[in-house]
Amino acid sequence: MIKLTVNGKKRAFCGPPFKRLIDVLREDFRLTGAKEGCGEGECGACAVLVEGQAVNSCLIPVCQMDGRKIETIEALGTVQKLHPLQEAFIEEGGAQCGICTPGMLMTACAWLRSHRAPKHSLRAHGARPLLKYGRGTYRSPQDIRRVLAGNLCRCTGYQPIVNSVVRAMKRHRTPK
Amino acid sequence: MRGAPDTIILLRPRSTRQALEVFAQNPHAVPLAGGTDFMVSWNMGLHNGKTVLDISALRSWRKISAAKTGVRIGALATHADLQRHPALRREFSLLTEACSEIGAAAIQNRGTLGGNIANASPAGDSFPPQAVYEAKVHAVSAQARRLIPFNEIFVGVKKTVLRPGELIESVEIPFLKPRPSRQYFRKVGTRAAQALSKTVAAGLLWLSRDGRVSEMRFALGSMATMVRRLKSAEHFVQGKKLTSEVIDHACELLAKDVSPIDDVRSTAQYRLKVSRNLLREFLSGR
Ligand SMILES: Cc1cc2nc3c(=O)[nH]c(=O)nc-3n(C[C@H](O)[C@H](O)[C@H](O)COP(=O)(O)OP(=O)(O)OC[C@H]3O[C@@H](n4cnc5c(N)ncnc54)[C@H](O)[C@@H]3O)c2cc1C
Ligand code: FES
Ligand code: FES
């Protein structure tokens, strides 16, 4: 039996240990937010967070998730209370068909929560303009492109997606 | 066909000792680390019916530790772990740079250094840095352990000298003394992320006070079946000043050590041209 925590709830999985995480989430736990785009690690539509880090759930056999904490798009926000990133994606038109959106949001969310670079180090890389985000830390729109490079979108176009993340960062200057 | 989970025999050792014993008993088991190579072919149904040795629970193999002589990187350290490590970033920036260009964030969070080496793709981006840093691979089995110089680990496309029952435990990289005057890494692919290399290069250069080359090391990946050091060019520039004639000739000599391949990603001619340009960029310090 494999025990894992999904969106704060303890769950157990008794099926074949080599079943992929994406299939366990979608078929056994009925969490259908993460999508299978390519099944090859290329598109990021299946991205979820494991211990806070973005990973492709199509490349993980569930046995490797024993004892791990998993977060999926289902826990990011609710219709009543959207996550700042979700709000921003709606306002900026960062989603069309929505297949890539759960992966985009989870990857961006992990990045916003993670350690942020101090201003001087970004300046050194010539990354400008800088967005203040969190306490005394800064990020640049180029960073957003880099962090979302493994998330492909076939409809929206990447500019509105980058704009959405920028908007979320401008409005909420601290990570959620 | 898809991966059929019911057909797999799964071995999940909890300790390194157990792992080596189980592997000795099942020498045809396929090791599994971060799965970013294995699971792609698994999803295509290519591993059904196999015995899989999942080594991802061997925590001690994820450590990166600095000693007096060098840094030891556990085989299970991920590309993200390497980038976060202060001593690696400071002393071996070519390697951490390479890790930052492997796939995209989600791949770097799972893919391991050991997996990159064992997978032995001609396009492994961590290889040129490890070749110029003259890394050594610690391989272990239930019976023995051995230290394999990085330039001896590969024997062909997807082939290493690892024997059945043998695992990569860690990679050791000696500190560079004195520090090189110039360090260079560059990956050329179709786009910034998630693209396998058309060519990938790493270089180290030591200049003496009078501007002569005391040592040069340059390695190219994705150009042949395995990563190659440019021995002829390295030898030629030794003791010389880097004039434009010397650089031109070194670039000519490049073809002595690499015979690029035509493949799905690029033509041989393109690869040769681009890699000469990279060597030129490195030697002229631009
Ligand atoms: C979308 C995508 C993009 C990628 N981009 C790049 C890229 O740009 N550059 C690049 O170099 N690679 C790239 N890769 C390949 C892959 O991510 C790397 O090779 C990674 O380092 C493999 O590590 P892993 O732990 O995931 O290996 P696994 O998939 O777990 O294993 C790979 C192979 O190595 C063997 N193995 C693993 N660990 C050991 C060990 N300790 N001892 C002995 N054998 C072992 C396994 O049996 C298997 O055959 C990409 C992959 C994907 C899916
Ligand atoms: S479905 Fe997992 S990366 Fe495309
Ligand atoms: S919104 Fe359709 S793939 Fe991105």
Indicate the CATH topology of the largest domain in chain B. Uridine Diphospho-n-acetylenolpyruvylglucosamine Reductase, domain 3
Distance, first to last CA of chain A: 32 Å
C-alpha-based Rg of chain A, rounded: 17 Å
Number of strands of chain B: 14
The tally of domains of chain A stands at 2
Helix content of chain A: 25-40%
Spatial strand arrangement across the major sheet of chain B = 4-5-10-6-7
**Quick one: CATH superfamily of the largest domain in chain A?**
[2Fe-2S]-binding domain
Span between termini of chain B: 49 Å
Q: What is the H-and-E element order of chain A?
A: EEHEEEHHEHEEHH
| Overall spatial form of chain B | globular
Radius of gyration of chain B: 20 Å
| Number of DSSP helical runs of chain A | 6
Low-pLDDT residue intervals, each spanning 5 or more residues of chain B: none
In CATH, the architecture of the largest domain in chain A is Orthogonal Bundle
CATH architecture of the largest domain in chain B: 2-Layer Sandwich
Strand content of chain B: 15-25%
Shape verdict of chain A:
globular
Quick one: CATH class of the largest domain in chain B?
Alpha Beta
User: Average pLDDT of chain B, to the nearest integer?
Assistant: 94
The tally of strands of chain A reads 8
Could you explain how this protein is built, in words?
The complex is a heterodimer of chains A (176) and B (286). Helices cover 32% and strands 16% of the residues of chain A. Chain A is of the alpha+beta class and 176 residues long. In chain A, strands 2-1-5-3-4 form a 5-stranded mixed sheet, with helices on both faces. In chain A, strands 6-8-7 form a 3-stranded antiparallel sheet. In chain A, helix 2 packs across helix 6 (158-171). The two termini of chain A are 32 Å apart. Residues 118-128 of chain A have low confidence and may be disordered. Chain B folds into 3 domains: 5-54, Uridine Diphospho-n-acetylenolpyruvylglucosamine Reductase, domain 2 (2-Layer Sandwich); 59-174, Uridine Diphospho-n-acetylenolpyruvylglucosamine Reductase, domain 3 (2-Layer Sandwich), CATH 3.30.465; 182-284, 2-Layer Sandwich (Enolase-like, domain 1), CATH 3.30.390.50. The N and C termini of chain B lie far apart (49 Å). The A-B interface holds A 15-20, 39-42, 44, 47, 50, 53-56, 58-61, 63-64, 107, 110-111, 146-147, 149-151 and B 3, 5-6, 8, 10, 12, 32, 35-36, 39-40, 42-43, 52, 54, 56, 80, 103-107, 109-110, 191-194.
